[in-house]
Amino acid sequence: MGSETRIMINIESSPLCLYLIRHGETAWSISSRHTSTTDLPLTEHGEEEALLLEKRLRDVKFTRVLTSPRQRARRTCVLAGLDATAEIDQDLAEWNYGDYEGRHSIDILAERPDWDIFTEGCFGGEMPGQVSARADELIARLRLLKGNVALFSHGQFGCVFAARWIGLPVVQSRHFVIGTASLSILSYDPHHPQVPVIARWNTASSEAPAAPFLHLGDVRTMKQRALDRWENEGGEIPTAGLAPVQAPARTDSNQADVIEQAIGPST
Fold it and tell me: What is the helix (H) or strand (E) element at residue 49, kind and residue range?
């Protein structure tokens, strides 16, 4: 094991942390055509994007894995290595574009210059209030869970879901953008556990592995473990992703300062 110290956390009793993942690239996502019920496969590049997610998520322990019924989301889940326990959840499906399915926004605007999906919705599909209600129902179910939960979904619905998670009206979803095969993390403020937050947003599948989001209780546990290690062994202090901090010669005056610098304040 060397000098590495792992912080063991009981994920089944830890606060809810949502890993929101958009599906990989499709032919219509490249051309910016509205895609909801049309069941398109991933492109070759989309498969490559999804495979990169496996590296980012392999060390994260999930209590549940939920995916949209569309094959582009399900395939992304498979390539990310999380299909073994995945469950289909209809509420993760994309905003139903109805008559606008397969069309470009520029063509719709040529017919309806004032059209905005977040206020007008889609003829023959879902209205903003319906999508917002669907997101709210999903959030209500998710808040009964604990630990890390993976959600494989879509671009437009993912933005609505994030807005509703932090209490914003559906119209504010227009200020959110998520790329294909991106990872976002929605959880709670570590210092105010009742406040929902967006802890990470629209990170590319090619970025560094996603370290589990730490809550206040976890940080306090880390600090106590660091102090114990200092007292019993000396040497490196675990910093959960930060560069290891080598313990200097021990004195009563510098012990607390170094711990604080390495781990952060406990307030």
Answer: helix 44-57
Pairing of strands 183-189, 17-22: antiparallel
CA atoms within 13 A on the CB side of 229: 20
Q: Give the number of domains in the chain.
A: 2
Placement of tokens 């495979």 in the chain = 51
Q: What is the pLDDT of residues 155-190, one digit of tens each?
A: 999 999 999 999 999 999 999 999 999 999 999 999
Q: What is the pTM of this model?
A: 0.76
256 and 153 fall within a common domain: no
Q: ∠ at Cα 176 (28, 171), nearest 5°?
A: 100
Which residues belong to the active site? 23, 94
pLDDT of amino acid 237: 46
Same domain, 196 and 221: no
Please give the torsion angle defined by the CA atoms of residues 32, 34, 37 and 42, in that order, rounded to the nearest 10 degrees.
10
